[in-house]
Amino acid sequence: MTLDANQILALAPDPASAKAGSQLATPRNWSNLGTSDCALWGECQGSGKTPYRTQIDLGGPAFKCTCPSRKFPCKHGLGLYLLRAAEPSLFGQAAAPAWVSDWLEGRQTRQEKKATVKDAGPEAAAQARKREEKREDKVSAGLAELQTWLHDLAREGLASVRSRGQGFWDAIAARMADAQAAPVARRLRRAGSMLYQSGLRNAESLVANELASLYLLAQAWQRIDELTPALQADVRALLGWTMSQDEVLRQPAVTDRWRVLAQCTFDDERLRVRSTWLLGAATGRWAVHVQYAVGTQGFEQQLAPGTAFDGDLCFYPSAWPLRAQIRRQDDVQPLSAIEEPSSLDTLQDTYADALAAQPFLERHPVLLGGLVPDGADHGIVRDAHGRRIALHPSFRQPLHLLALSGGHPLTVCGEWDGRMLLPLAVWHDGRLYNIDSDLP
């Protein structure tokens, strides 16, 4: 598609962007200019030391830029397009660099998915695409506002917001809900409530870690087209995009003897959520099966901790796949043995690999052996070498854990966040005790 200057300026979101884009349409502002049959790209030096990477899908046209602007297209995209219209000889024909080709491939993938959302014809597909693009724009605007809020909070410090109460957190959470980023809204409300829970240890540290994770998520969304498809799926899932069960069950299946090692049920606003951790006997692969129920509605699939079954699991797309749906479940039997538990050193190595692949990882499953609760400090356990492992402050049964141990080593199945362990189940004397259901 070839546009002239007037047509390009008509794409500007406002007169200020059109003016700024026109000012940028000079060769001195740009480097690494290039074009292919379907794209246009270049780097524009901004106020920082790293140039902004700007790219245009000529088939749209569609724009992408690494600048922090919330306008679409931004002044850099307009400037690049105007420069091409004015001086096409500056753009040598070349193969697109990876940061451009990856973006184009991601766009093509999303377009193909959008085109198959419904089989009701092109009109319905076009409406679905418009809804999707509208939501993406709302999420982008909301996360840009969140980044500004986080910058302000970083300058003020967490200590300064304690006196403002929960309403301070609810306000920004409501803004995220309006931006159709409901999971972010829930995390913000939960982070704020941590500061006002008198019995919660290290509340400021927990909140700071949560806010840092949200900031990383906002940054990832801003650069989502530069991420791998698997990591894009993680980011979109964390922002509230869902994948239907039928879509998941069309993924390749992993067949194994799956051991049901832990289960917890909790309330998440109006929903009841049940997470069940499974471990493959042959593959050694972890999976978490998540179910939702409303009100008194029961959960569709019943998975009993302390059992095992032959089955096929289909995993949600992810850079470190954990969540899965069960396609087949046969031959359910009581659990008579479990895998050899790992050590703290092995856990640290495995967690490092997981975090390198999926930096937004919130919980990592673990089966740790040789753990003895500390009789003096109920907030820690010790491994076989006497090393301290902090228990997550949300864990409410440290005395029951101590009583079950009786001073002897336990094998604990739980969730690790890189700093603390949340016990979910205990294997002791040939029996699995699920903490959520078996301990008072």
Describe the structure.
By secondary structure, the chain is α+β, with helices and mostly antiparallel strands. The chain has 4 domains: 5-115, no CATH class; 125-224; 245-333; 344-438. It has 13 helices and 15 strands. It has helices at 5-9, 15-24, 75-86, 98-115, 122-156, 166-178, 182-194, 203-222, 229-238, 245-249, 344-357, 398-405, 435-438, and strands spanning 30-35, 39-44, 52-57, 62-65, 253-268, 271-280, 286-294, 307-315, 324-334, 364-373, 380-382, 388-391, 410-416, 420-428, 431-434. The strands form 3 sheets. The protein has a 5-stranded antiparallel beta sheet. A 5-stranded mixed barrel has the order 10-11-12-14-13. Helix 5 (122-156) crosses helix 8 and helix 7 (182-194) packs antiparallel against helix 8 (203-222).
Shape: elongated
Structural class: alpha+beta
Element-by-element helix/strand order: HHEEEEHHHHHHHHEEEEEHEEEHEEEH
Biggest β-sheet strands, sense, barrel: 5 strands, antiparallel
Number of DSSP strand runs: 15
Query: What ranges have pLDDT less than 50 throughout 5 or more consecutive residues?
Result: 114-120
Radius of gyration: 26 Å
Average pLDDT taken over every residue: 87
Give the CA-CA distance, first to last residue: 68 Å
Q: How much of the residues is beta strand, in percent?
A: 25-35%
Helix content estimate: 25-40%
Major β-sheet strand ordering: 7-6-5-8-9
Number of helices: 13
InterPro entries: Znf_SWIM
Domain SWIM-type: 52-85
Keywords: Metal-binding, Zinc, Zinc-finger
Biased composition (Basic and acidic residues): 111-121, 129-138
